[in-house]
Amino acid sequence: MLASATVTSAPDLAPSPSGTAAACPYGHAAPSPVPGTGRRVPLGPLDLFDEGFVRDPHPWLDRLRSDAPVHRDAATGLWLVSRYEDIRRVLLDPAAFRPDNAQRAVTPLGVPALRLLARAGFRLGPALADNASDSHPGLRRVVTRFFNARRVAAAVPVTERIAEELLTTVRAELDTTGRSDLFRAYAHTLPCRVMMEVLGIEGLDAAALTRWSDASLELFWGRPSPDRQLELAALVAEFHEWLTELVGDRTAPADGFVGALARHRLPDGKPTDPRTVVSACFFVFVAGQSTTGQLISTVLRRALAEPGTWRRSAHEEGSAEKWVEEVLRREPPVTSWRRVTARPVELGGTELPAGAELLLMLMGGGSDPDVFDDPGRMLPGRANSRHHLAFGLGRHRCPGASLARTEAAVALRAAARRLPALRLSPDAARAPTLGLLSFRAPLRVPVEEPPRTS
Ligand code: HEM
To answer: How remote is the CA of residue 13 from the centroid of ligand 1, in Å?
Structure first.
């Protein structure tokens, strides 16, 4: 059966008259309605990787929600699902909407990159986010044990210590050059170092893990050119080789993360095969730090831009936590996530065939006016602040949500206390933004301090 889509090709999207352009934290001038007419100004064709969309997706998300809530994107073949209730329904119905495509490369890899990966023995099987089989609950339980409330509480002093150490470097940069970059010097590194301590990963430089992790995200969720694919594939192959060695090490302690996964028994009583253990580690080592680094980058960037937020985050109890929650709602680092229909199904008034690949616009759901009043405004502590879908929902809901929230709040509070006079540099509005299919965050947070008066 063919889909009877409400919209089958890229519409001329325009923001609603109450468009959110004014709220854009990057000073990006999105088109606005013609004053006094209520007429919509076209935004141009939708391109999920285009700089305009990446810098400020909200005008497009608003328009998708109101005019084409289940819209087929011609360039990627994905069905964009943008209304909160539709996204929620999909996440809560794994029988009709399977996760099998969650980690598939959105840009087909060329033969040279595939050859390079094959030579390195790179092969991932379903383990966590893309696993719909009966092995998923058990593997997931192993992971959740390492990120439960007790472990998150234990991660707080670790995060505080590493944050202080990194902020000392930021302080020194400010003292010597008058400038620093909170993404490079702080947000990018902090979660990786925390995760390595929490999971007991030793003998590896955190910079190597962030490099491998960033390369994996770009290769599978980006639009890299054939030459770039080769560079990224080389890094991903290195990552895979290191993981394979780690998993093959029979001396790994049984109570450590890798050891626990390697000793896990599948529902049929058989040991978990090394490929599945490598796949689970691959996903957790990427998800466990890149996404949190992206969240921290946006949290800091927006807190510095919003009058009074930096100061409150330093001194008011619970203020940093509330800010993090609003950022997760309005500007989540994981902007979307994929599912595929198991059978023909109706969604948001559109008939979808079996095998339709969906892109759930988690970021759009967090700004749905049917759920969140005045969604374009940052209102820390709003009544339903935790109802956003930034961590997914249901069977595959992110098991690292609590750790990510905690790390981001600690990171914001520590920076605001240590560097109370910090402000964004004038060039912050031009700083590049990471714009992958499902991941978005500032790649630079340039900061300075006002000159001291003697
Ligand atoms: C701000 C940071 C993070 C965000 C926004 C985020 C978001 C997500 C999302 C949207 C999903 C898919 C949920 C679904 O399919 O319903 C997911 C799954 C997952 N996340 Fe996170 N995540 C973050 C941090 C972390 C951390 C710190 C860990 C460390 C353990 C982690 C581990 C995982 C795992 C293992 C899954 C797959 C779970 C499963 O399939 O059962 N994530 N995450």
So the answer is: 31
